[in-house]
Amino acid sequence: MNVVPKEFIRVMPDAMRGFVSEAFQKAGTSEADAAHIAHLLVLTDLRGVFSHGTRQTPGYVGMMLDGKVNPRPNVRCIDESPTTAVYDGDGGMGHFAAYHAAKAAVKKAKEMGLGAATSRNHFHFGSAGKYSRLALEADCAGFAVSCHRFRHSPDSPIATATGASPMSFAIPAGNQPPIVVDMATGIDAKLPFEQAFEQSPAAFFKMLGLSHVSHALGGIMAGIWLFDKPPDPPTIWEGANQGAFITAFDISRFRPIDEYKAEIDQHIHDARQMQPAPGHDRSDLPGGLEWEREREWAEIGIPVGEEHQEQLKIIAERVGIPLPF
């Protein structure tokens, strides 16, 4: 899904932002919140993470129109210390509460050296990299995870118990692209489970471990409730079943930032000179390709494939607005 399609049209970022913002406003979102979520979704498109960008708009807007997600949430910080914060999303999109949490974590990291925040009582927050990357702007390292409320099935193999939870690490650099790991903690195996597991059991057990870090921190610690326990605070929003944990730390508290950036730049540069992986024509570290795409596509437009176009047509027809192409 996150491979550039062979056939596509280019849509300029401003046109896409305007379209998505208008769609959310038709669902009842305030102008400011609609502009915010449109900005984040288009940023995700610009990085080539199409699975979590503007093609999600029909699902998100649909949840609001169907009364499952609050289109006008009152996001609040409900607990705070010098290094921590807890945000309640009031049944809205995770893009609001998790963003507040990420900004708070970075602010506290600059003030205290370390900062962390959770968000809860909200719907999907999209790709985790949107939040870990906020740390980069302040020369901090960031980490973000999320989880939705679900229960394991005793009929399923333990190695599949991931819940599709996202995870992201962001490491700042100087002149080189930052290192950004932005991933789901599941494996999209092309083979039947038993066959894929036999070929690489270590990969499945690493997946299991990473996913349950997301569950423990971005789910249970964040305060998403169990099925047999009522939510606290109460909510009427059916879609508000997710949470997040975001942390940042100020690198300058450990090393002079200029020295650190010089060394990390050399490290990244050397890695990019290595021999490419089989089937690839270049070597890079996680985040490098997204960094380049964001800058290039901001100038020439987002490549929007046929399936992506169909998703935009669905929401355009539902809320009665013109397409951006």
TrEMBL record:
Coiled-coil stretches noted in the UniProt entry, renumbered to this chain: none
Membrane spanning residue stretches: none
Top-level division of the source organism's lineage: Eukaryota
Keywords: Oxidoreductase
Signal peptide interval: none
Gene Ontology terms for molecular function: oxidoreductase activity
InterPro entries hit by this protein: Mal/L-sulf/L-lact_DH-like_ah (IPR043144), Mal/L-sulf/L-lact_DH-like_NADP (IPR043143), Mal/L-sulfo/L-lacto_DH-like_sf (IPR036111), Malate/L-lactate_DH-like (IPR003767)
Similarity field: Belongs to the LDH2/MDH2 oxidoreductase family.
Name of the protein this chain belongs to: Malate dehydrogenase
